[in-house]
Specification:
The chain has 2 helices and no strands.
């Protein structure tokens, strides 16, 4: 978040520290919860995919032909 918010906008234009601090604080309210939601969602999807693959392998082993 810090890298995307504090990145320079235009070459040679300095951003005041107060404006940068305000931008960081305002963005942290959005980046924090949404970053957590995205991280949790991706983690849950990966775990579900991993479990379905493992279960599929176990089902193939236990199948009687």
């Amino acid at each position: 978040m810090v890298f995307s918010v504090a990145a320079p906008r235009l070459k040679g234009v300095e951003m005041p520290v107060a404006a940068l601090t305000t931008r960081l604080l305002a963005s942290s309210l959005l980046f924090g919860p949404f970053g957590l939601a995205m991280g949790t969602g991706v983690g849950l999807l990966a775990d579900g995919l991993r479990r379905s693959v493992i279960k599929g392998r176990e089902d193939k082993k236990n199948r009687i032909v």
